Amino acid sequence: MPDIVAVKTPLKSQLSQSSGLNEIHLFGLLLLAALLLGFDTVSHLKGGIGDEDVHRYQIGWFMQGRFEIFKYVTMLPLYHLIVAALAKVTGLVSLNGIRFSHMLFAASVIPAMYFTVKRFFPAEAIARTLLLVFIPFFFPLFFLTYTDLPSLMVVLFMVERCWQRHYGVAGLLALAAVLLRQPNIIWVAFCSCMIALQVAREMQLRLILTNVLNPKFLQQVLWRNRFMVVVYVLFVLFVAVNGGVAVGDAEQHPISFNLSNLYFFLLVAWAVFLPFNVEQLPQIKLLLVRHWWIALVLVAGFFVYFYTYGHPHKYNSATLVFYGHNWFLHYTSDVTLWRVLSYIPIAWMGLSYVVAVRTSVHGDLLLLLVPFALLSFVPLPLIEQRYYFVALALIMLWRPPMSRLSTLINLAGFLVLSAFILFNVSRQSFFL
Hints:
Layout lengths: L10 H9 L3 H20 L9 H12 L14 H13 L4 H12 L2 H12 L4 H9 L14 H16 L3 H14 L4 H18 L6 H4 L2 H10 L1 H17 L16 H14 L1 H6 L1 H10 L2 H16 L15 H11 L1 H6 L1 H17 L3 H15 L11 H10 L5 H23 L6
Pathway: Protein modification; protein glycosylation
GO molecular function, one term: dolichyl pyrophosphate Glc2Man9GlcNAc2 alpha-1,2-glucosyltransferase activity
Pfam families: DIE2_ALG10
């Protein structure tokens, strides 16, 4: 009788066969549990927090059949219309009911990030999506009536459809993005330039002036952007009729030149990508050794930063320390020692980004991101980390891979901080 040979099956396969679960199932269950637990935590929050009341007021009007725009709502009210419709359909019309309806809408950012990452780093789709979802100042907004996550969802799907060359769908998403938040016109323009990069790759052209003026190149770029052009025309008509970009509360949202938003963005990005930044230290050292003049740029940058960093907007006042970012701004800007020390992570993040552009397989997209990221927050007088969501998500999307250990450390830190912040927000100890 022949010997029976035991065939060893990998533990992962055994689990999949025995339980019927795979990674994507576990991923979905984890996120479902996190969203339900997070919502339960926020359900203890009595009354609105931050700008919630403004949005809730507009949503309430729509649920009552009053189709006017509340004077303090700065954007076109597509978000409010959708949440009001969800609340009416489900019958969830209380404060927490509206928040639950918002969560259903906001959760769409999860598949948006997942499927977009799949186009660029398929093996890391779950990891990068989890890292985005649990960014500590990002996660609480799944449960609070803010427009940021639905807006990011549409932008991510627009990027994904552009990359897949589905330009008609991308054009519809571009229109939806602008209807959700008018400043998203910047990300529509980013997608137009991404299309130009695609054309240049296909025609094997370097993006220099003579090639950009190539008639065949221009013809292809304009043809593929035809749906985006419609959005640009509609946006210009809206601004002309409205007398500006903001619908309401326009006096608090003028166009400015605020370098402090750049400094704060770099500080926030340094914290969000800290494990990645640590991994870039050897490459940063090599960069500085090979290009000594970068040290001179950093020294000059310090003096520009030191004499231009501030927070003059009344909503960034040091007296409004209930808002955590104002407390952080106060110490990094008003306390000289911390102002000096804060330049270290700012410079570190800048150098890490340069290394990422040089080493990522999507370095051209990271480089293209720079001017549009600056346009998305430098003209804004108010310093607010929510303005950085799209830029942070796209960096998360295209940065080079990092080690499994760094990913686990990053995610574990995010989970702990998200739980801590969400609990304190629900008890009104502080806000973001």
